[in-house]
Design goal:
The chain is mainly beta. The protein has four helices and twelve strands. The chain starts with 14 loop residues before the first helix and ends with a strand. The N terminus is likely disordered.
Amino acid sequence: MPKYFRAVAMATVSVAAMTAAGLTPQAHADDGSKKCESDGICYLVVGPSDTAVRNWLLNDVCPRDGATCEIQTDGVEDGYAPAVSLADAASGFSVLNNCGSETAEQRVTWAYRSSTSTSVEIGGGASVGIEGLFQASIETKYGTRVEDTKEVGETDVLKAPPGKQSWFELKPAVKTYTGTLKIDTGVDTYFEIPGIKASFPSPDHGSILTVREAPAQCATGAAVNPKQLKGVDEGTEVSSRTVGSS
């Protein structure tokens, strides 16, 4: 016999507040946002605008004893995280500012560790443990284990022409997985949150290292700080190459 939603069976956590706001599970079930599968279980689909319900499920329901939350991974895409400016791991050097008449050079030893700490996207909500659910799903579907962090780094020679300042920036390589979170509350009530994305450091394709240039800070009497971090996307791209590929 099919299992349908029973609002009265929901745990008492946050239900009163949800009811007052018109966000009860039954109210959502009545609007037709149900998805029934071949095993007879019907999932209440939580839409992108249902922030209160989504956060309640992630932060209050999933951690409860008796509840089961799992992610079904739908696909994966190679890409890059937003660019970051790099500093020398040893000296804190970041910008080579050249006010001279000849090209300046600086050996820069840099390192960057990327992670998944802020990469899980579920509309306006996220909860601790989602990364782990994604990792388990990816391992089941693709037979591979994704890591939380990856470090890439090397020693390079940075050059700045006369009247220019130069710096390195990095676009960390990531694999972005999409999936659907399925929630069994343990009381014959089921939810589905589609469109979840998580970006993990890529184990097999390289990051992009870029050299950027801008006019040097050479005004008479100006306090030039050679360790000043330039903003991402400032200046002009001079060159780029792949680093850290396996």
